[in-house]
Description:
Elements: E1 7-10, E2 14-22, E3 35-40, E4 47-50, E5 58-60, H1 64-73, H2 87-98, H3 103-122, H4 129-150, H5 157-167
Helix pairs in contact: 2-4, 3-4
Amino acid sequence: MxxxxxLIMYGGTGVCxxxxxxxxxxxxxxxxxxxxxxxxxxxxxxxxxPVDNHQVFMRPVISADEANDLIxxxxxxxxxxxxxxxxxxxxKYYQSVLDTHKCVNLIKLTKSIHAKKLDAxxxxxxxxxxxxxxxxxxxxxxxxxxxVALKISRDDVESYIQQRLETA
Length: 168
């Protein structure tokens, strides 16, 4: 069970702070079910997540050491460009990668779509909307978690990664 003030990854929302653990007014008194009150760090709103709900993925944010180790492995992360003539298949594939909730898979996805973008630009084409959408989702999740783990601004993550890889 998480504690108040813990930072967790919550489903596709990303990093959330556990601001309270309570039985909200909307819950019937007979059930007396406990909920995490989650405040997303990079979105507005509040999320009420049942403590005993295992349908939405939750895990602790990675540590600073894990974040730096992950960044150090970026050059070795092998990626393959996934192409599909079906937008539905492409979306389904990208979503399946996001649904693993693993940072290394987010790196693979962003590197893959970035390679796809460079390939498209070399042919005087634009990256497709689905690719752009999932690239943004993957970067938001990954950079949000790295920012929290490293205690830096979300906007500074990309330059932090570049500096770390240049000095390695």
